[in-house]
Task: structure prediction
Amino acid sequence: MRAAWRVAQVRAAEESVMKTLPDGALMQRAAAGLARRCADTLPRVYGSRVLLLVGPGNNGGDALYAGARLARRGARVDALLFDPDRVHRGGADALYRAGGRLGERAPDQADLVVDGILGIGGRGGLREPAAARVADIAGILLGAPVIAVDVPSGVDADTGAVSGMAVHADITVTFGVLKPGLLVGAGAVHAGMVELVDIGLHGHLDGDPALYVPESDDIAAWWPRPQANDNKYSRGVVGLATGSAKYPGAAVLSTAGALAGPTGLVRYAGSAADAVRFHHPPVIAAERVADAGRVQAWVCGSGLGTDERAYGELRAVLGVPVPVILDADALTLLADARLADWLRERDAPTVVTPHDGEFQRLSGGAPGDDRVAAALSLARRMDSVVLLKGDRTIVATPDQRVYVNPTGTAALATGGTGDVLAGLLGALLAGGLQAEHAAVAAAYVHGLAGRRAAEAGPVTAADVAAHLRGAVGSLTHR
Result:
């Protein structure tokens, strides 16, 4: 499990490390890692044209020292100074001695651009005149790979907010530890591929990380596996109160997601029972929750509708003392004050899975730029695990832990994929995973399945469901 840390924690760790090192050693570590990544990105270093975008302070210093290393290897390095009076003098001198050029005019072309305008302390996007100068070189930025130093300029390193102009990087070389703004929201899009350079901060970090990033080994370790003495009931039974006569596809898709999970049996309850029986013969189907039989977890809401019948089914699910996943129409129904007590009085875990519109209905406002804080606030208020969908899906817990899913893909932005996710999540809960791990694992595998489906062309929810088993197998059969 990787972790990301807030700017204040990073600053404190850097200060602690610098007390143990010769002056400037920490910056040299960062510059060495940055220069190596720049060299790996170029087809060859000798004779290549490198443009440094240099702001004031240490971020610009990192870029200048890295540029000096490239210049000594034969690259032509030009440093465009955004604030000449505040340039890092040591870095500027190093670049000049290595044969680099410093000025306030950009060359016409570059093979690589290094963004060192603002560092992790930047807030609120690029301001004038820096924004205008970046706009002036838009052609160069579009025509060459862009490597950001620590964080793309204009991205809030703590939240991922981009509230003004910001640099779009192809690669971000970040130092010491990951920063939340590289992993969530618009910041993750601007960061491109993130590469971490170890500069020795571990062991000097205080407090808890801002968020966690699961890796394949984590998901594989959590995933329930059948044991020799298991039967279909001991492996867990998941119930699905999804779909309706109007939306039978939601029932079929959520069931497909559940069948790819670790449980031994899937029960369906709803008016799309005939469609489920036709598409999924192993499923035991009934017309209502009350007639479905015993389960270890319920999934409720996908395509359920919002009429009185749907309201009654949701109330029946909330009244069962097992973990519950509330998705789609169930979230709309939760806005009804009549259900507040039913939710508040539950002892078993609850997971809610909103997209941004559903989040707004639940919380009274959009997630905004700080999606992590928004998810945490809703998790605390609802006393539920919140799976906030998006390109970087966020899982937040009532006790204020946050996970960010790294496997998301834009290919999943199509109708019905959320139904598949809900079914898979329900099966993991019924299979015995604690709620936060079930939510994280479901999002991770769902993302992998989406990526696999996208390799064949345009993606439908049925394609995602069809690739779930392969995604699970790639994790659990290594």
